[in-house]
């Protein structure tokens, strides 16, 4: 798998509706994972989207999720740029450069879904997400 760069949108509880709308607009395959399916015990979040990904026939990738409990949803700044793939060395290199002089909000480390993931805001105020998955095949 090559590394991928795409927008990641944050929603205030309506990620499912928004991502289904974008699926109607762009076509493609939509995969949705809920907080409940990932083991979050809070029933208020059980059906909220922890991660959604739309891959379109035109080659677009759009990801999104509902803002998790404890984090603020701020319209106008409810996006991040996502870098993902299985080339750990490449992605860690990007992480080191992007986070240098910026602010790390989630350290780049193994997460409950099994991937290595981190979030930072670079020195120019742009929010980034880096996800390193295990190589396939």
Automatic annotation (TrEMBL):
It comes from the Bacteria. Pfam families: Glyoxalase. Residues 4-130 form the Glyoxalase/fosfomycin resistance/dioxygenase domain. InterPro entries: Glyas_Bleomycin-R_OHBP_Dase, Glyas_Fos-R_dOase_dom, PhnB-like. PANTHER family: PROTEIN YJDN, PROTEIN YJDN-RELATED. This is VOC family protein. It comes from Streptomyces parvulus. The lineage of its organism: Bacteria, Bacillati, Actinomycetota, Actinomycetes, Kitasatosporales.
